[in-house]
Design brief:
Elements (H helix, E strand, L loop, with lengths): L21 E5 L5 E4 L5 E4 L4 H13 L1 E6 L14 E4 L6 E6 L3 H20 L10 H22 L5 E5 L6 H8 L6 E5 L7 H4 L5 H8 L4 E4 L2 H14 L4 E3 L4 E4 L2 E7 L6 H9 L1 H14 L5 E9 L5 H14 L7 E9 L5 H21 L7 E4 L5 H10 L2 E4 L8 H9 L6 E5 L12 E3 L4 H13 L2 H17 L2 H19 L1
Parallel strand pairs: 1-4, 1-7, 4-6, 7-8, 8-9, 9-12, 13-14, 13-16, 14-15, 16-17, 17-18
Antiparallel strand pairs: 2-3, 5-6, 10-11, 11-12
Bound molecules: adenosine-5'-diphosphate-glucose.
């Protein structure tokens, strides 16, 4: 693909990143203050890759993180500017909380971000629903984030880093609200960008494009999404000049650079976690329990979301048991699935479907000694996940669409000295990096079943070679490389624009 795909390694590492204050904007906050029934104040760190990856950056660099104040006691601890210093144990930066009423959360977060933009970007038009009134609230909330960022930026000497699809209007709003003295604004879009023909289903597609073109630099996970974005602009936004060669858009007298920066994980931290004694023992217990006597263990780890292809993978496993009876009793499928977005009916239905499909497979093939599908509907902590990744012979990621998919990378990091095989959807961004994976089309249940069988029957030598290739790739692009690549480009573009 001709559009720029950047790896951290290719970038200069000598340059220090700009020390101007960083203002980071995301929907989720890194710390939540809550009050229990007894009135006791507690602090939680909402689970999620994004906040845990960015938290060390903010702690070392300082600045302000602007996010929705979602905790019940969030505003009991903030000052007059809705700000509190965090991390609580050693304050290093400001957390500025945006107040949202329950009605605003419903319209901005549930209806607009999660029922319109999420399914649209994951090519799931059957789940797509657009409500114009809710969208007005989305716009207002985005403006509130933009105003907060500008107040924090004061004289314009700052870099604003916006995250994700909840905030697609922020960069454009920053431009409109402030004439001069505008900070450098860039945005990382964590999910796929759809082709223009899908985007056209969104009645406000042009406005979203215009909002995003308020960024100086727009960051996607892969070159494919970069290309989708550029062709969407060329198709849908009159007056925009797209340069595919340079990967830029000129619109409204300004230029936006559009690049791919595949996100990663803290590889060393996952390796260390997987090597801890407690984790090694937990992995052994898992094997004794679910894969005794040399049986094989297949693993899936996801939020329960229709983009992750969980029913499709269960069907593939059922097909394997049906067509290759020799595997019956010799392989167990452990699926760890944490419920998410349960306020949306489609997610409730999906959860029911996953439970029922697992139960049907178990009723059909299970024996008193063997449960084919073990479904744990929980949010596992990192040590438990590491133990599962370490214990598994095969990990399957069968997303119908996925910006990147960090589970695939976490599995590889934890397989230090292991023999695990990764079965990976070709529709996950991770598939563009992980050469050693067995790639599947999750809609093709028969082929996915055959891939599972290939993975289970793979010889030790091939397992090692594939794993080594993926570990090399992973180590060449860790979360630090990802961040460095972005900040090097930000520094370069800032210097150019001065
Ligand atoms: P998600 O859609 O949430 O992220 P993913 O990349 O797989 O998807 O990250 C999920 C994270 O949650 C992983 O760190 C995983 O360990 C954790 N997780 C998943 N299921 C869990 C469970 N049952 N218990 C505990 N933890 C669990 C979005 C995009 C992705 C993109 C990321 C980062 O949809 O494509 O990779 O952002 O940009």
């Amino acid at each position: 693909m001709p559009t720029a795909t950047t790896t951290g390694r290719a970038r200069s590492r000598s340059r220090r990143s700009t020390r101007e204050p960083l203002i980071l904007l995301s929907n989720r906050e890194p710390f939540e203050h809550n009050r229990g029934g007894d009135g006791e104040l507690s602090i939680t760190r909402p689970a999620g890759g994004l906040t845990s990856a960015l938290q060390p950056l903010m702690a070392s660099r300082g600045g302000t993180w602007v996010a929705w104040g979602s905790g019940s006691a969030d505003f009991d601890v903030t000052d007059d500017g809705d700000t509190v210093r965090v991390p609580p144990e050693r304050p290093r930066y400001r957390l500025r909380r945006i107040r949202l009423t329950p009605e605003e959360v419903q319209a901005y977060y549930v209806e607009s971000a999660n029922r319109a933009l999420w399914p649209l970007c994951h090519l799931q038009l059957n789940h797509f629903a657009f409500d114009y009134r809710a969208w007005q609230v989305y716009r207002q909330v985005n403006h509130r984030f933009a105003r907060a960022a500008l107040e924090e930026a004061r004289d314009g000497h700052a870099t604003v880093w916006v995250h994700d699809y909840h905030l697609s209007y922020v960069a454009g709003a920053i431009r409109r609200l402030r004439g001069g003295g505008i900070p450098f604004v860039h945005q990382f879009w964590h999910i796929p960008w759809p082709p223009a023909d899908i985007l056209r289903a969104l009645p406000v597609a042009r406005r979203v494009l215009r909002g995003l073109l308020g960024n100086d630099l727009l960051e996607f996970q892969t070159g494919r999404y970069v290309l989708n974005f550029l062709t969407s602009v060329a198709d849908l936004l009159p007056g925009a000049r797209v340069d595919l060669e340079r990967s830029t858009v000129r619109y409204d007298g300004r230029v936006t650079v559009v690049r791919a920066y595949p996100i990663s994980i803290d590889v060393a931290a996952w390796e260390r976690r997987a090597a801890q004694r407690g984790v090694v023992e937990a992995a052994q217990r898992l094997r004794r329990r679910h894969a005794p006597g040399g049986a094989e263990l297949v693993l899936g780890v996801d939020r329960i979301d229709y983009s992750k292809g969980i029913p499709q993978r269960l069907e593939a496993f059922a097909r394997l048991l049906q067509e290759s009876p020799a595997w019956r009793g010799k392989v167990t499928f452990l699926q760890i699935a944490t419920p998410s977005r349960s306020e949306i009916p489609a997610y409730q239905e999906l959860e029911r479907e996953v439970i029922e499909t697992a139960a049907t497979i178990n009723a059909r093939y299970g024996t008193p000694e063997w449960v084919p599908v073990v479904l744990l509907r929980e949010n596992a902590d990192a040590d438990t996940l590491a133990a599962c990744y370490r214990a598994a012979d095969v990990c399957i990621v069968s997303s119908l669409q996925d910006g990147m998919n960090l589970v695939a990378k976490e599995f590889i990091a934890c397989q230090r000295g292991g023999r695990g095989v990764l079965v990976l959807s070709r529709f996950a961004g991770a598939a563009e990096e992980m050469d050693g994976a067995l790639l599947i089309n999750p809609y093709d249940v028969g082929a996915s079943a055959r891939a599972l069988e290939t993975a289970l029957g793979m010889g030790e030598r091939e397992r090692k070679l594939r794993l080594q290739a993926m570990r090399r790739q992973l180590k060449a692009n860790t979360i630090r490389d990802w961040m460095r690549a972005i900040f090097d480009d930000v520094d370069r573009l800032r210097r150019k624009s001065r």
